[in-house]
Design goal:
With about 350 residues, the chain is an alpha/beta fold. About 30% of the residues lie in helices and about 30% in strands. It has a 5-stranded mixed β-barrel with strand order 6-9-7-8-10. Strands 12-13-14-15 form a 4-stranded mixed beta sheet, with no helix packed on it. The termini are far apart.
């Protein structure tokens, strides 16, 4: 047995923070993506995530995976970040190449280390339950050399999430994975939620960095030819060579070493403006307001008013956003399709 296998492995938290968050336009832009917005609390999502990660692994082992253009705004949001806190992607190639590259950096500097992959836009509560679930996942990854997903018990028939079908329990509420299921239609989501055999795929993962690299070599045809470039730390050449692919599709859905830890915490990925009805306090009529707004004879509205007041009268279930020089008004039910409008405006 090698020294790296016999000792307790160090743990690193890698925060995926390179997305733009176009479903939160016009407040979220390439220069100020949603990670910098107070969507889950009165503080920015990135600040909440970094502090959560530091409590898990310590400040010296937190790495933010992002592009160079976001370093300055992230440092303004979290002033004590240093250069070592960042892993800068030369170009965006989805989560597969990004996480495999991060694993190679960690493995070269600390062989045998465990890697906790987090997203910068999740709302998680309470921390103690989250830390307990991570601990169970780390034990599974360290002892069985598995790739562990954190799965969330569905609370509604959600069509915007992927699902994990659970198999045999392996101990400590960690299960084998029977199959991954992509975003279902509403009827199928209802069956999944009612069955008890399916969990939401949170996108939070735990694995040994070495094990992810091994499975990338074995499973990810999109990355295989570029993997030797990581040995010399040539990130530019690696990202220029690889095909974009998510870690779910490229590795997890093809691997036979994947397990899922059932989460014991509350979770939301804050994916659309409608999510604010779950993450922010509402008034007696179910309206959520961030900023200055007045609502009369209206219910179920989401209002974001950061650049001047917004007034609503006699309307229900709308999203109204006033940010910069833009005003957005749409039905809440259309929130998940906001990318269509953003694409339309870009073409104009």
């Amino acid at each position: 047995m090698s020294d790296s296998d016999s000792r307790e492995p160090n743990r690193y938290a890698v925060i995926l923070a390179g997305g733009i968050g176009s479903r939160f336009w016009p407040a979220s832009t390439p220069a100020r993506p949603k990670q910098l917005l107070p969507l889950g609390s009165d503080r920015s999502l990135i600040l909440d995530t970094v502090e959560r990660a530091r409590r898990l692994v310590g400040p010296e082992r937190v790495r933010i995976l992002t592009g160079a253009g976001l370093v300055a705004p992230f440092r303004r949001a979290v002033p004590d970040l240093d250069d070592e806190s960042f892993l800068l992607e030369p170009v965006a190639r989805s989560t597969g190449p990004a996480l495999v590259w991060a694993a190679s950096v960690i493995e070269r500097s600390d062989p045998g280390a465990l890697m906790i992959s987090l997203h910068s836009d999740h709302v998680i509560d309470p921390f103690e339950a989250f830390a307990g679930t991570i601990e169970r996942a780390c034990r599974a990854a360290a002892t069985r050399h598995s790739l562990v997903c954190l799965g969330i018990d569905p609370t509604r028939p959600e069509t915007g999430y992927g699902y994990i079908e659970v198999g045999e329990e392996l101990g400590e509420q960690v299960y084998s994975v029977t199959r991954f299921h992509e975003k279902p239609d509403e009827d199928t989501a209802g069956r999944y939620a009612a069955s008890g055999d399916f969990l939401w795929n949170s996108g939070i993962f735990v694995w040994r960095a070495r094990d992810l690299l091994d499975e990338a070599e074995r499973c990810a045809t999109e990355l295989r030819s570029a993997l030797p470039l990581l040995g010399g730390g040539d990130a530019d050449a690696f990202f220029d060579t690889v095909e974009p692919v998510s870690v779910d599709v490229g590795i997890l859905e093809r691997s036979d070493r994947v397990e899922v830890a059932r989460a014991s915490f509350e979770w939301d990925d804050v994916g659309t403006w409608s999510a604010l009805t779950r993450t922010r306090d509402a008034d007696a009529s179910g309206n959520v307001v961030v900023g200055v707004a007045s609502i009369l004879d209206g219910s179920g509205n989401v209002v974001w008013a950061e650049d001047g007041p917004v007034r609503l009268f006699g309307v229900d279930d709308l999203v109204v956003v006033r940010s910069g020089d833009e005003v957005l008004v749409m039905k809440r039910e259309a929130a998940s399709d906001l990318k269509k409008l953003v694409t339309f405006l870009e073409r104009q």
